């Protein structure tokens, strides 16, 4: 009978007490970093009204308290509701924030649009990721959309989720607005007769301009593509610089003015008869 020989043991070098102490310290630092990173993702900052509403120097949009009423609502979860200072808006815009971006970063836009009779709802998502709850607009539209033109919009990942929502509810919507975003590869609105605006930041380093342009193939044939000159990905929301983004060649105030003008022109082309029943 042939005996099987044990494979030789691979010996590991013995560490000195000092080396073991350094290794333990490094492992503790790594564990602490991982815990801190996970906590930052799982525990989101508070939702604070007005925190990011102050306009940058020279900003064109009028976003002071006398042009809008801003409240925090709870309809299927927290949502910022921004209405005209007087009366009710004839247009409802449900805006999906970008990934890991707090809703208040887009409050500036809702305040500016309120002066034009637009009511904006910016929902908060679990972990600030619209992909977790893509149909969040359902409850908001059911509560506030009756008798109004209803549009969905979104920035970056929020825009992709808004496009997916629009693909399933095109007949009930009056329009779609994408900011530095495009539909997912398995989503197509090509056959939908839905007025659509796609905003592309010229210096965007996060949503590649070629990808945004390529997304037009999955959007309605009449989609309007508007390039925001010199702008970067982070100029759509007031949340500060973003990793891997491009370098802007204009001020944030200039970019916000261009964004607002593009939205105003787009909204003016949508028939007022297209309303929620």
TrEMBL record:
InterPro entries referenced in this protein's UniProt entry, alphabetically: AB_hydrolase_5, AB_hydrolase_fold
The UniProt record lists the keyword Hydrolase: yes
Keywords from the named record: Hydrolase
Cited Gene3D superfamilies: alpha/beta hydrolase
A GO molecular-function descriptor: hydrolase activity
Domain Alpha/beta hydrolase fold-5 span(s) in chain numbering: 93-254
Protein name from the UniProt record: Alpha/beta hydrolase
């Amino acid at each position: 009978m042939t005996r099987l020989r044990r494979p030789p043991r691979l010996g590991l070098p013995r560490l000195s007490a000092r080396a073991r102490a350094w290794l333990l310290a490094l492992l503790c630092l790594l564990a602490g970093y991982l815990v801190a990173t996970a906590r930052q993702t799982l525990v989101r900052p508070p939702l604070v009204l007005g925190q990011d509403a102050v306009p940058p120097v020279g900003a064109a949009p009028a976003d002071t308290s006398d042009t809008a009423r801003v409240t925090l609502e709870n309809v299927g979860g927290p949502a910022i509701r921004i209405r005209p200072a007087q009366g009710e808006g004839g247009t409802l815009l449900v805006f999906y924030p970008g990934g890991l971006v707090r809703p208040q970063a887009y409050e500036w836009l809702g305040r500016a649009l309120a002066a034009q009779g637009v009511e904006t709802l910016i929902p908060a998502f679990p972990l600030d990721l619209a992909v977790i709850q893509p149909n969040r607009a359902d409850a908001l539209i059911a509560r506030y959309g009756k008798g109004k033109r209803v549009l969905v919009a979104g920035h970056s990942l929020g825009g992709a989720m808004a496009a997916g929502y629009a693909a399933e509810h095109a007949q009930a919507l009056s329009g779609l607005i994408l900011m530095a975003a495009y539909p997912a590869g398995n989503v197509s609105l090509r056959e939908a007769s839905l007025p659509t605006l796609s905003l592309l930041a010229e210096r965007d380093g996060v949503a590649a301009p070629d990808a945004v342009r390529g997304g037009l193939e999955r959007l309605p044939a009449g989609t309007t593509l508007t390039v925001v000159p010199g702008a970067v990905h982070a100029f759509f929301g007031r949340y500060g610089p973003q990793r891997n983004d491009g370098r802007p060649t204009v001020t944030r105030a200039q970019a916000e003015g261009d964004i607002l003008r593009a939205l105003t022109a787009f909204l003016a082309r949508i028939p007022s008869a297209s309303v929620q029943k």
